[in-house]
């Protein structure tokens, strides 16, 4: 990808991100709920109940920790 195309692509991505934020509202931009994750995400789910930047990773990590804490 050359420089101009990369620039256009970045601009398109930024526009898409802003459009998403405008459509869903600023409350949809949240930090990850996992205590040991510094990530943030835009909740694009319909219900707006997403809590983790990467549900498979951060959600699971927390579940495993809770599970271990319960057993201990
Ligand atoms: Zn996370």
Automatic annotation (TrEMBL):
Transmembrane segments: none annotated. It comes from Streptomyces iconiensis. Residues 28-71 form the Zinc finger CGNR domain. InterPro entries: ABATE, ABATE_dom_sf, Znf_CGNR. It comes from the Bacteria. This is CGNR zinc finger domain-containing protein.
